[in-house]
Structure prediction request, 825 residues.
Amino acid sequence: MEKIIEIKNLSFEYEIGVKTIDNISFRIEKGSYTTILGHNGSGKSTIAKLLMGLLEKKSGDIIVGGMTLTEETLADVRGQIGIVFQNPDNQFIGATVRDDIAFGLENTCVEPTLMDDIINEYAQKVNMLEFLDHEPTKLSGGQKQRVAIAGILAMSPSIIILDEATSMLDPKGRHEINALVHQLNKDRDITILSITHDIEEAALSDYVILLSDGHVIDSGKPEEVLMKQEEIESLSLDVPFAYKISKGLQQQGIKINQYIDREKLVRELCQYNLKK
Amino acid sequence: MSIQFKEVEHIYSENTPFSYHALKGVNLDIKEGSMTALIGHTGSGKSTLIQHINALLLPTAGEIHIGDILISATDKPETLKPLRKKAGLVFQFPEYQLFEETILKDIIFGPKNFGMSEEEAIKVAKDTLKLVGLDESYLERSPFDLSGGQKRRVAIAGILAMNPEILILDEPTAGLDPQGAQEMLQLFKKINQQGKTVLLVSHDMNQVLEYCDDVVVMNKGRVERHVTVDELFKETEYLTSLSIDLPIITSFILKLNQGGFDIDPSIKDIDELLKVIGGQINE
Amino acid sequence: MNNMMFGKYLPLDSFVHKLDPRLKIGSLLLLLIAVFFDAGFIGYALLGIFVIIMAIFSKIKVSQIVKAIKPMLFMMAFLMIFNLLFIQKGNLVFSFWIIKIYDQALLQTAYIFIRLVLIIIMTTILTATTKPLDLTLGIEHLLSPFKKIGFPTHEVAMMISIALRFIPTLLEETQRIMKAQASRGVEFSEGSLKEKIMSIVSLIIPLFISAFQRAEDLANAMESRNYNPEAKRTRYKQLHWRLADTLSFICVLIMCTTMVVMSIVL
Prediction:
């Protein structure tokens, strides 16, 4: 598979001598939905900022779509990646939804006469068309995050990074954003890199990178990584619910597979129950 | 202390074009010593409601009884200061209320405002800091050097140090990682078991199921339900209509039951659930 | 705070609302200068009529104008009393103890009152009919000649528009912190001087910390979306100068010239 992001021996320190990111390497497949999982303070948001060139790395390489991130390629790399940050309020730049979507277009010198069509198209995509003239104070957190995504889509990126983008939202907002992002991943083949501590979200992704104290502890398919109970718990995280159940049943001598996906577990349990 | 609302109305900016009817005929009776969840959508009136309990907001009409203190529309907020000590309110993201040079000074700020002597406040501060899981070495450190989760603990300690009879928490675990959230909730449960009334605003139904006894559902400014947690999660249709998720364990049980199992949906504990599933499979 | 009228945009659909912000800002500047030409009561009457016509064309209600003037009343009263007592020219018309009032003082004070009221009404018309963002855009365009001498026109405009965007957010935040501290026993309206200082500190420090956090987040978000103040950008909002703008500008020019001429003739 084609790699869209490659991180090689990346290190970063906020304070001299204290490595927030310590010699990290990983690769992300094009079109995949990858989660970086770690507790607060594990360095996961720092990686996002390094990828966007918002922080200066100490050593190592970041390669996005074949381009090595340098001062010269910075604008091109940022053109390929869109990022949604945690706090919905602090990334809303325009006075209205319309102006906010336009902000990125202005920066990339899109012809003003073309902007209205682009704005309408992507506002529709994220279901915010009827709110185009609303000010941010009149929108919910979930709506603001949807506007942020519209602003990103308008720049036709190949990668979207979600930096704990749903952690300040209520469940309704969270569902909306998760559904939208999964749909973008499927329909438009946009690579998603989601930074989170939500294990159930990670369970539904294609690839998981486990981060702790600036190190990659483990990475792989969620079925491989998320079933390592000791490892997961040592990172102050919790194993998926489906895993707890399937493992508990195995311990009772019931012969079923181990799962991290609840739907699949329910299916197998029901079949098992019918068979007997 | 008990909390009673009688026909409480609240209208923001009354008689202006911006007027907003946030609470409509709210009746509520929260028993002393209970741990009650307050759930509902953003904008359903939850924050307006909790701000009435320590008189940050006064009702436009109706009465509120907190223990034997009466709050009504005609009261002056100044006379209600003692109430703020008895009903401790922890806002969402309370770490943003820290301001002192040291953690000690920040924790004793509240108690001193309510007339506690400095010596006593310091003693209390040491105890509450321990309660929230930080040791005494933190006392002289600046609150601004801490991690986000630690800041929140200090902020909560600042309210606990006032030794309130009622503790009101507005989404205290928002943004915390799973372990941080769990520790926080265990702390509140412990405080509740010491006899304090706890009111927890939460969006996370797993938390509601695991930690609370009763639950109040608000929708469009009205209290629509005030029931036990078990009773609430039986009303799946009602919850769906409000697009409130069921707790993971409850929805899992319901799905199994659709597929031929017969499991009591009010089971809260994974070990118990495992036994029941195992039992039914091995029948 | 919600009742403040001065400086608030009124989302109406009027002739003045549709005018180009450059015209409105330019006209306000010219009219503000014109107000200070001593054109006698007839001149001010003419200007007054002109301003009333503008207000009518803006669909602003009398009650809204009164609301805009109200918060200024204290300052106006202070200025007027000051003038009444300290201008000692002309004939003495009133004398009591050490208070002496002259007819020139009365005249001057009347002028000051008229000027202030006109200024407030004109400014209110501008802010009530122009969205904050259009105002910034207008200012940016009007300042653009100064770009050549190195004045950071674009940056200033961006700063103003971000400030405008975050005012409501920070007001909300202020209220939230005040309530949080009130829950910890702070009384913002009462107490000794020491307590008052403490209560203000307990508000200001959290407010600053949060504002800095927001500033950092915002800078990250802007940079991530490829914002570079030095690079070329296009603008979504385009200003369109129409015939109505030219005609309105001519009217303003005639009015201002009249004021100047009258002040010279008189």
